[in-house]
Each structure stands twice: as structure tokens, then as C-alpha cells.
Write the C-alpha cells for this entry.
Amino acid sequence: MSMSLEERVRSAMAALLHAAGESQTELAAALGVSQAQVSRRQSGAAAWSLADCEAVAAHYGIDVLELLAGPTRAAEALPVGRRRISGRHADTFRPAVAREGGVR
């Protein structure tokens, strides 16, 4: 049996939170709502509205259709700079700089 749209959105939200290394509190702050409101939406006690979905997609830099497509598509669409790497956000990752003699 396939997921309902509401289940797909909740799963996509969870996948994005995990992939970005964000908490519900951080997402709530970005959306201008309380963490409790995010929690109720994630638990299914309240529904994510289309306006919420647009705001979340904009926050993560993805198209709203990728969010509605489900967790795999949403997480894959997350820009590299928004992804966490080994517990850190990708934008805080400092790769080694290549030099003539190798990598320092």
C-alpha cells in the first residue's frame, strides 16, 4: 500500500531535517512557528498546509514538488551546501586544498 500525501509530506520533512542536520526547533524558527506546531504536524495531529510546504521547500532550497514527491526525492534534491557531513553542516566543512605536491 502506498503512503498518503500527508504521510509522504511528513516523511519528506523528517528526511530533510535529518539530511540537513536541523532540529524541529530550528525549522520552526525558520518558518516563524513554534516547535510544538512543527511537532504536531510531524506527528499527524495537525496537517502541513500547502503554504507550509512552500515555505519549507524555500527554506531548504528545493522545489515544492520534490517535497511532495516524498522523502527520497526531497533528500536527494537538498543542495549539497545544506547537507550535513559527519554530524556537521556541509557549509562548515573545510576540504583539504590541493597543492602541486599533493594535498595538505
